[in-house]
């Protein structure tokens, strides 16, 4: 099986505290995967490592057909290679309009000079319109994104992630702050996205994960505790003990 | 939705109009045109102020837009001045030497002329040899190229080292202060080849120009106004569009910009170098109007003043920087020029030449605390009155009512 992302034997510690401990994980093309685990299990730190924000003490992170070593690359190069990330706390550029936020994320050359002379083409504008439609912000394109509600900012960030057209999407707690209907929309969106690309969803809401209907990886104290279908992992006595049983 | 650059940035047109009116008015009131309403020295002050506005725009770009609090941009300003000053001094001395040697029995060889120029320029530092850095001083085009190249390269190398190692925030500010301090200490040495603490002088005289200072001051005023206008349009263009979006994104959350795939270091380096070049051009126009440049000009405090101007004027908007630089530097000339009467308090007399700095510091603190948008923020108050921002909300009670888009027309 050809893995898109292959993480093996990764460990990282902060001031002696092992946040990630000999973690191995792999995901193929067009696969949807949920990562669950109690608070502090190291889910966000895992994403930090894959996207180049945190350098691990040991281990390997390999990417794509050429098995490129992501640990040697800068954040911007990793993003250009096709890894997109949505943060746990919605992070959009608050003093810029929704349109500008989406345009900045749109897949286009990222260099300084290319950007300086860039003017949005008709196709780019149409694409931004489509994305805004998809995340329910079509009426808000000219609004400053700082004025959006928490849930709308989540959507905007999802829109920005889509605009990047990444091959692997890392989505950290997408449903936080969303209404029930929005959660359902989010699950549908994630499932349909995963038909054409790899998607990793971090979530601790079990119902949300169940609706995704995908393979689940349970993280605990920085390493994988169990992996399999949702029914399989929820039946695992160790998972029940550390996570569900509480 | 699609709008022209001017339509998206109406402030550019307003600014250019104000600048044109100002320049025209000053010209009409000048000595050169016989009006005698503004003294030649005040025209020079105004011309210099325009140059300070230009360097303030550069500062606003690097700090207000990109979030890099550089406290070293006056180093580039000063370097620009030194580069043009070298040609001005060389060419003028060359003319003087040629005149004095013209009556000699034997025509002087080129080497003798060069030696004579050397001893004229470097006599004050006890030398007569041309240091290597004066190699191009005889040529105006080459020295003009150096105005851009020397500060540009310094900024490029310094920025590359600093940004690549991800030095940010207060550490970067300290590093830029160290850079300008090091430059000024280096220039203070006689061995630097730029006449040590004497600096370069006599720069107000344009070699080979017969016109009087009344005309020269006007020419420089026009050149400064032109440079300011062009610089304003260029900077406004750079920060409009996607590049501006990315740059402001870097200011607000640089990690996020990285995860979108933009190389933050590259963008910072671009802005840092670009603004250093603008600062250098401003300096090259400033010092001929000041007449003299010495190492004190690039002292660390000068760059701090620059940040204070931009903060008082309102950072993050180009006209704010212009307003800040113009207001503070003109008011400063007024206070330190001894034109404000002292206030006798019986036991103590408040002498504004000394107390002006206290006043400036106080206004800086007050602006930072109570009006972070600076003087430029007043424009928001006015424009909010004129056209309330309704954020796309409809005017009337139902969908049939006038929409905002219609109302704007
Ligand atoms: N930069 C950091 N410095 C110190 N400790 C950190 C850092 N990042 C994460 N941690 C610690 O690592 C652990 C895992 O955190 P995190 O990955 O955010 O958990 P999760 O996202 O699963 O809730 C937590 O105990 C957290 O305090
Ligand atoms: Mg987390």
TrEMBL record, chain A:
InterPro entries: ABC_AA/LPS_Transport, ABC_transporter-like_ATP-bd, ABC_transptr_urea_ATP-bd_UrtD, BCA_ABC_TP_C, P-loop_NTPase. Keywords: ATP-binding, Hydrolase, Nucleotide-binding, Transport. The keyword Transferase does not apply. The keyword Membrane does not apply. Its EC number is 3.6.3.-. It is an enzyme of class 3 (hydrolase). GO terms for molecular function: ATP binding; ATP hydrolysis activity. One of its GO terms (cellular component) is plasma membrane. Residues 5-246 form the ABC transporter domain. It comes from the Bacteria. PANTHER family: CONSERVED COMPONENT OF ABC TRANSPORTER FOR NATURAL AMINO ACIDS-RELATED, HIGH-AFFINITY BRANCHED-CHAIN AMINO ACID TRANSPORT ATP-BINDING PROTEIN. NCBIfam families: urea_trans_UrtD. This is Lipopolysaccharide export system ATP-binding protein LptB. It comes from Pseudooceanicola marinus. The gene is lptB_2.
UniProtKB/TrEMBL annotation, chain B:
The keyword Translocase does not apply. The chain crosses the membrane at residues 12-33, 45-64, 71-90, 144-163, 170-188, 216-239, 266-286, 292-311, 318-335, 355-375. Its main location: membrane. InterPro entries: ABC_transp_permease, ABC_transptr_urea_perm_UrtC, LivM-like. One of its GO terms (cellular component) is plasma membrane. GO terms for molecular function: branched-chain amino acid transmembrane transporter activity. It is a multi-pass membrane protein. It is found in: Cell membrane. Keywords: Cell membrane, Membrane, Transmembrane, Transmembrane helix. NCBIfam families: urea_trans_UrtC (TIGR03408). This is Leucine/isoleucine/valine transporter permease subunit. It comes from Pseudooceanicola marinus.
